Amino acid sequence: MKRKKLKKVLCMATAPVFCLSMFSCSDKKEGNSSVQSQKEQSVQTNENSEQIIDFALVGCLEDEFPPIVNDFNKKHEGKYRAVMRQIQNTEQSKDFSNALNMEIVSGNAPDIICVMDYSLLRNLAGKGAVANLYPLIDSENSPLAREDFLSNYLTANEIDGKLIAMPVRFSISTAVAKKKNVPGVSENWTPDEMVQALENMPEETLLSVGSTEPTVNLHTFTFRSSSRYIDYNTGECTFDGEEFTNLIELSKELSERGDDTYQEDANVFAADKALVYFGGIHNEDNFESMKTDTFGDDELIFVGNPSYDGKGGGFAYTESFGIMETSDCKEGAWLLIEEYLGDKYFESRPDGFSPLEKNLNIEDEYLDSYIRSLTDNNFYDYDVMDIIKEEAAYYYSGERTAQECTEIINNRISIKIAEQTWQT
Question: In sequence order, what are the beta bridge partners of 58?
Answer without folding.
Answer: 115
